[in-house]
Amino acid sequence: MVAPSLDWFEPAFLSAASIPLALDRVLCIEESKVHFTRCLRAALCNPVPHGPDRIAALSQDIKLLQQTFQHRLGILAIDRPQAWFRHSSTAERGPFAVAVFEEPVFARFDDCRAVAVRHLLPELWRNRQVSCADYDPALSLWGRLLQLNRRLEQINQLPAPFSDVRLDELPEAIPDELQSPALHKFGSQIAQRMKSCQRELDACYEQLWGRSESFLYALHIQYLSNKARQQQRQHQEAGARQRQKSDARSDRQDTGSRYRDSRTDQRETGSRSDQRDMGSRYRDSRTDQRDMGSGSDQRDMGSRYQDSRTERETGSRYQDSHSRQDQTSRNRQGARQDPP
Question: Whole-angstrom Cα distance, residue 286 to residue 330?
């Protein structure tokens, strides 16, 4: 590092070949000092009027986050996952009220993504990112921690044209032409404050990650256990449905078999009944035939008796008519023999 000069006008003439070049050099150096001062102001000053500088505001938020971790992380049980996704009920109430952030530790995600979240959180921290396409912490303690980490990085890096200057590397990062004893001291103080904020944030990350890693691992084991039980239950239900189908088929087969047996029994019973009916009808017909034969004989005997009587009556009438004819003939002959 070049020793700072107390004369801001002298360095421009040491390397200038002419007066115009020397004056241009003075203006360039002074403009660089103005731009550097403006960049420091943009990085450090709070846009809120009369508010603390950005490093002081960041430090206050970090301390509040540390206080939140101390009062909330210790009471979270690994075997109670819902508490990690629920807002805190320990706000500024009661005789021992403590100001803490009320956001849940994690934004809601599916249990099956516990392993993915377990790998993404350290990556987001290292890259000083708040979220990515695969995971968004949203309004949670993890989201707040990542936002503070991102804010620290935004403060630490000066805007253009001094974007290669970092506050935690001051005063060594100050360009040689802008060096001064006061700026050197100011830069050292700013670097110490930035490094202090970084150490506090790292401690917050280690504390939150230590608890979260155990929880995410337990959540993943619980997910695998639930998945195994669900698969076992599905397998049992599938087996039960298969057994029900088999039982239903067996019942249908038994029903069909009993139906066929009943039909066979009915046919056999019907055949025996038919045989009995046929035998009964045969016996009845034989009886009827005998009865009919007996009646027919009686009718034939009556008919023959009537026929014989008719013949006798006919013969008697014939004899009577023949006798009358003979008597008439004799009467006629006697009449012709008598004289008139």
Answer: 64
